[in-house]
């Protein structure tokens, strides 16, 4: 699925570039033959390029751009805007970030279904997460997590669809699943201080994978520090300590389907 997503991205890029070249040529009143002479490229190549099938090199794109009286960057500038907006919003962050609370309210505000990915994993495994980790190990959990995510995306990604997903805290540690999520969902990191995370985790009574450990709070801090760089790769970051639940919901609703990065 990740490979197919990359291929789709390339198709959108080439299609958008072709449209930009054709629009610029028409704006200048140039025929295809005239542009090929100015750009030093074949008419067949230009036809393929404008049709969105031309796997053009940077150097040849430069030549075409110069012939059109513009730059390669200008031709590419509007291409990204043609990519469809991601209709699934995925909340990421360490346990205690507020993914469940914020996710439910966000889904209600956007009139979208809400999914707890860990709940889907539990249903698929037939046991609680604690038992799943203890009896079958993390590898099985990660496989089920990826499979359930694929099912949600297959059912809710696309125009006139959408969903809000609260993901597990360690989803960023699985490169394949994280890449899948990044490719198909608008990812939002719910950022919080270590103290806030710990207070919420204790209140939830769920200290995986630190249960019955004397230095559990210190371990949580370590986990947060280790994952922070990965979480920061999310499309949007919101500071839950600064904004609170309602503020986070408003900020994500504003930025979740847009392209601007929310201020942290």
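Sequence proposed for the structure above (264 residues):
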């Amino acid at each position: 699925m990740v490979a197919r997503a990359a291929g789709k991205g390339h198709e959108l890029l080439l299609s958008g570039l072709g449209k930009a070249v054709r629009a610029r040529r028409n704006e200048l009143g140039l025929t295809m033959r005239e542009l090929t002479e100015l750009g030093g490229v074949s008419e067949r190549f230009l036809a393929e390029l404008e049709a969105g099938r031309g796997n053009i090199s940077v150097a040849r794109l430069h030549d075409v751009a110069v012939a059109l009286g513009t730059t390669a960057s200008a031709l590419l500038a509007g291409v990204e805007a043609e990519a469809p907006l991601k209709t699934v919003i995925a909340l990421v962050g360490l346990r205690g970030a507020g993914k469940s609370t914020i996710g439910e309210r966000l889904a209600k505000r956007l009139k979208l279904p809400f999914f707890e990915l860990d709940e889907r994993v539990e249903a698929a495994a037939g046991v609680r997460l604690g038992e799943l980790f203890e009896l079958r190990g993390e590898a099985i959990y990660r496989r089920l997590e990826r499979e359930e995510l694929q099912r949600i995306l297959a059912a809710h990604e696309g125009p006139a669809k959408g969903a809000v997903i609260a993901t597990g805290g360690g989803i960023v540690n699985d490169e394949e699943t994280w890449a899948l999520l990044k490719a198909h969902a608008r990812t939002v990191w719910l950022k919080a201080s270590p103290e806030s995370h710990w207070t919420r985790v204790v209140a939830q009574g769920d200290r995986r994978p630190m249960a019955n450990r004397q230095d559990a709070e210190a371990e949580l801090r370590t986990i947060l520090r280790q994952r922070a760089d990965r979480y920061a790769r999310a499309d949007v970051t919101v500071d839950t300590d600064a904004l609170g639940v309602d503020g986070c919901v408003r900020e994500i609703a504003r930025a979740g389907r847009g392209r601007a990065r929310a201020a942290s």
